[in-house]
Each structure stands twice: as C-alpha cells, then as structure tokens.
Amino acid sequence: MATKGKVKVHLKGRSRYLPWPELHHATRSLFSVAREYPKGSAHVTTAAVVLSAFAVEGFCQTVGPVILADTWLTGDKPDESLGIRAKLKKIGKAAGVAVDYGRQPWKGVAELFAARNDLAHAKPKLFEISEILTLQADEDPRYHLQEALRRKHRPLHDIDRLEALMKDIDGALQEIWAGAAMQPSNMNLMGGSQWSWSIVE
After folding, report:
1. How far apart are CA 104 and CA 114, in angstroms?
2. What ranges in the chain are assigned the alpha helix state H?
3. What global pTM score does this model have?
4. Which of 181, 177, 53 is nearest to 119 (CA)?
5. In this predicted model, what pLDDT tens digit does every residue of 60-79 receive, in sequence order?
6. Distance of alpha carbon 196 from alpha carbon 201, whole angstroms
7. Crossing angle, helix 19-36 and helix 159-179, to 10 degrees?
8. Ranges of each domain in the chain
C-alpha cells in the first residue's frame, strides 16, 4: 500500500460485541485509573460505581439469551425486559444458583444497584456529619469532611471497598456462568473481529 498520497480502500468486517467481557474489562481499567488520582478525587470512583453496575447488567445480557433462550425475547413479558434484579434471579435459577439478595454476595449486588440508582435518579439532598477529629496542624479539615460524608452517605464510593465487593460478585457470577454450561475460559474473552481490505482502483 502506498505510503504517500491518498488511495481508496474497501474495508469489510464484523465484530461480535459481548457486553460482560467488555464492561468487566472497562470497569477493571477504571479501578486502575481511580488509584492514580489523589485521595478525595471522588469523580473517577463515582464513574467506577456506575460502570460496575453496568458490568453486572452486561453479564445478564450476555448469559440471559443463552440460558433463557426460549423466553428471552418471546411472550407477553420477555425475560429481557425484566428489571435487572429479577433478571439476574431468573438467570441464576436456570443455572441452579440461588440468588438471594438478603445474603452475600448477592446483597452486594443490591447495594451496588442502589448506589447506581442513587446517581441515575439523583435528587437534591442534604448530607450532614458531626465528628471530632485529631489532625496534623498542616492538614486540611475539608478533606476529612468529604471522606466522613462519603463513609456515611455513599460507602461504595471508596475504590477499595468497591473493588472488594466486585471481587465477591465476580465469584458469584462465575457460579452462574458454570451453571449455564458456558466455558469458564470464555467468561472474560471479548468477542472476535474479522476484517479484510482491498484497494479500489
């Protein structure tokens, strides 16, 4: 192919998109980015909360059509249209895994989606805190105020806690993946791409 000037190229291809591995990878990448920011930089962690919830939903959208093939897109109320918690519970049942939102790690899924919903359907609210702290003379108390508010009102907006929670959720999702008779080695394998190109004369 010429290295100078312009040529016309016919490009053909296709790429298979699988929601779970793509969103799972994106979430893990965001965890790494969040750790590069100084403590108290909450916005990247907020994005990680949202993307973590998207990843769990992406899991349902990847496994659901396989294990619930007969009802995923058919009937008066297709399984695909269920709310995320009901969808995950139904997928779990089909895979032989009890999804109980009153017990860990599924309780963590409920907590994650509550945190996401708090952001997705945000309303003005007043957050309050009253604490006595012992600080170094040169420390900025405002940083500690934000941390105290986060701990009380938005506990998942802590990258260590969020990552630990997602590790537990990942383990539970692996059980469903295995119960759905899907290859364990394919769980985090992104969809493949095929393409070709030729010069147009």
Report:
1. 15
2. 19-36, 42-67, 84-95, 106-120, 141-153, 159-179
3. 0.83
4. 53
5. 999 999 999 999 999 899 99
6. 16
7. 160
8. 18-186
